[in-house]
Amino acid sequence: MTANFQETLKALGKQAKKEAVEREAEAKAKKQVEDVDFSKAVGKVTPLKNAGNYYEQPRDKSPIKPRPKEMATLEQEDYFYVGSGGWEEPPASFSKNGQGKNDLMRLRNGHYPVVADVDLHGYTQEEAQQVLNEFIEFTKKRGVCGEIVHGSGLGSSGYKPVLKNMTRRWLMQHPDVLAYVEPRQGNDGAVRILLKRQRRDDDWKQ
C-alpha cells in the first residue's frame, strides 16, 4: 500500500503548530509571574522626563524569504540542492548504476513496489527541493522506490517545464538516487525513482 507522504507532512505541521501554541502559553504564564515579581522588587516607579527621546532600531527592509508549505524534519544544512541552469531537457530515463538497463526495465515493469509518492504542483523550485529532500528520507525508511509528480510544465511561462527539468536534474545528481523512469508511456509529468538500498545494523553483524 502506497504511503501518503503529503499526509505525513500535514501531520507534522499540525503537531508542530500544537507544540508552538503550548510553548507560547507557557511563556505567557512565566512572563506574568516574572512581571509580578519584578514589580514587588522595584516598588514605585517614577517616569523619566522627556520619555519620548528613545532609540528606535532601524527597520529591516530586506525581502521576506518564502517558507516551505509543510514542516520539514531535516536540518537545513543537510538539504541537497542544485542550482539553476544545466540541461535544457533532461532525459526521460536515467541510471548511474552498473546494472542500469536492468534497473530501468524493473522500474518500468513495476518490479519494485512504490512505497511513497509526492505531488510537487504549486511549489517554487526552492520549496520543491526541500520537499524532495524530505521525500527521499521518507522513502528510504520504507523501501527503495517512490513516485514523484512534477507536471509537464505546459502551464509554465513560455511553456518551459521549469519544475520538471529541475526535479530531474536534482535526481540525476542526488547521491542516493540510482535511477528514474517515466512510469507511464506518453506521460512525462511524473517519474518513478530507485534509491540505494539502506544497510541495516543487522547486515553489519552478519
Describe the structure.
Helix 3 (125-140) crosses helix 4. This protein is α/β, with parallel strands linked by helices. It has five helices and six strands; from the N terminus they run βαβαβαβαββα. The longest helix has 38 residues, at 5-42. The chain has helices at residues 5-42, 100-109, 125-140, 162-173, 201-205, and strands spanning 3-4, 94-95, 116-119, 145-149, 177-181, 190-195. Mean pLDDT is 77; it is low at 59-72. Residues 16-33 have a biased composition (Basic and acidic residues). Residues 13-33 are annotated as: Disordered. This is Smr domain-containing protein.
Largest sheet: 6 strands, mixed
Large-scale geometry: elongated
- The Cα radius of gyration reads 25 Å
What separation lies between the terminal Cα atoms?
A: 30 Å
Oligomer, anyone?
A: single chain
Question: Using DSSP, what is the number of strands?
Answer: 6
- Quote the beta fraction: 5-15%
SSE arrangement, N to C:
EHEHEHEHEEH
Helix content bin: 25-40%
Q: Would you identify the regions where 5 or more consecutive residues have pLDDT less than 50?
A: 59-72
InterPro entries: Smr_dom, Smr_dom_sf
Region (Disordered): 13-33
Biased composition (Basic and acidic residues): 16-33
Protein name: Smr domain-containing protein
